[in-house]
Amino acid sequence: MSKHNPRLPGRHELGQNHLVDDRVISRIAELIRAEAPGPVLELGAGDGALTNALISTGRSVTAVEIDPRRVQTLRRRFGDRAEVVHADLLTHQAACPGHHIVSNVPFHLTTPLLRRLLDLRDWRTAVLLLQWEVARKRAGVGGTTMLTALWWPWYEFTLAGRVPAAAFRPIPAVDGGLLIMRRRVESLAPGDERSDYQRLVRSVFTGRGTGLRGILTRLAPEPLVNRWLRSEGFTGAELPRRLSAEQWIGLYRVISTDDGSDTLAKRLRSNRGHTATMKPRRQSTRH
């Protein structure tokens, strides 16, 4: 197995576990090569192993790195073949819209980076190397998480493989996983429904009750809940993590267009402390 050996050790305080397995590096580059044309923004370039592979795809590459020592090393190594930016991956603003994102994410920054990326509107595809279990859950394998359900109408989440811990230096305690996030070409809900939809998802995931029936009957009339459960082939004992993207948006449509939506809005405000209301909206497939 060919290995890439970084010249500088990872700085523990920056949470750096550098990717050193050439097979995994090539795999990430191929995933980007398969995407539509567009520049690449690498967040957390480290020693540049991924940067070099991304340059080989023929795309314009901007590499962001917070460690000033490594910034200087990267600039000397790549010259004008890549733009190297000294910045924090959680705050850097991309200069070019329509780009693709690549990151070997420091494990302790996984959740804040995911939340930030999902809230941005300027990128197309993100190929992220995360902890294995996090990548599985974000892709909805074996049940989804609230974070994925919140954004499913606007993004697709795909698991692209497992990366052994031995592929990193220093070697972490857990394996990694490749997660691909793609902005949907045709959204399942328009962007102006996002806050209402996400309020419902949060209320269901954090609601009291046993199973979907117990949770949903606190939010909507029982006959309405029962009809929806039957239409999906559910018994009502299932947990929210069982729902697919289409089922989440279907539930939102049923509840938000029901005559009792004003009552539902009050219950959601009471449950989560929000002041906005859910209102019936015209269905649309575009973001």
TrEMBL record:
Transmembrane segments: none annotated. SUPFAM superfamilies: S-adenosyl-L-methionine-dependent methyltransferases (SSF53335). Its EC number is 2.1.1.184. InterPro entries: KsgA/Erm, rRNA_Ade_Mease_Trfase_CS, rRNA_Ade_methylase_Trfase_N, SAM-dependent_MTases_sf. GO terms for molecular function: 23S rRNA (adenine(2085)-N(6))-dimethyltransferase activity; RNA binding; rRNA (adenine-N6,N6-)-dimethyltransferase activity. Residues 24-185 form the Ribosomal RNA adenine methylase transferase N-terminal domain. This is Dimethyladenosine transferase (rRNA methylation). It comes from Actinoalloteichus fjordicus.
